[in-house]
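Example 3.2
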Amino acid sequence: MLSRLTEGKSSKGTSSDGWREASVERVLCLFDAEIPVDNQFVQVAATLADGGRFVVPVDNTTAAQALKPESADVSVEYETRFLERPATITTEWVQDVVNRFDITTIFDIRDHRSTLGGGEFALTTESNHVTVTPGNEVASLSSCLVPVARGPHLDTTLNIARVIGETHDAWIDFFHVVDNDESRSETDALFEYCTNHLGDFDEFDTWRYEGWSPAQAIVDQSSYYDATVIAAPQKSRLREFVDGSTTEVVQSLCENTVVTVRSGDVDASRLDRWLGELLAPKN
């Protein structure tokens, strides 16, 4: 199920209970003025905030009115807080908003390709960070490819995949690329973990794919889906900067929309946080 909040921080667990009733996520949603408020991923961010708080910088009262729960297309309930959108969204501004409203997830739908796989705000704020890299426009968001592997961002990635599935009645394929060194039992254990984490959500399938390059496999298969949901890189920011990452390749080469997920609970070194502040999007 989705992260629950205790003492101002989120703690993760799985259950077959109604996760919407238990969700108290506090979401900061960043999107460009030209993106309509009924955008598919704005709706996803609103669903994520169901039961919690939805904080959005807007340019006018019309946009604010359209984002109130009673005006949204999805059936959700959340406390709305609308802020005047600054001319430039800086790391300092985001940090201030996160602190003032106790934000748990930053949902960034702005039209830019984040440096090093996205998630720079997660490093500087310790909030979850979801970055949407736009791809080919689709009439409906009905299918998602979700590459999965053991790592620090897996739980949050599963949460976001579920919210997309719930919001748009989308089918989810959990995709794991293996080489000859990984046994089937290891892959089965990974898929069992994913299944247990999803609770009562069952609109998904699992796919064990044998190949030498996870990045190439993901790019090749992504063209059959409306979106790809991928976890942020697991390597350090310095190694990402020098060597690149699977996530960066997927963001750059996939033709569909790529949703990159980074958990704010992941410990980062002082160097990583400095690189996060240096590389955070400035607009």
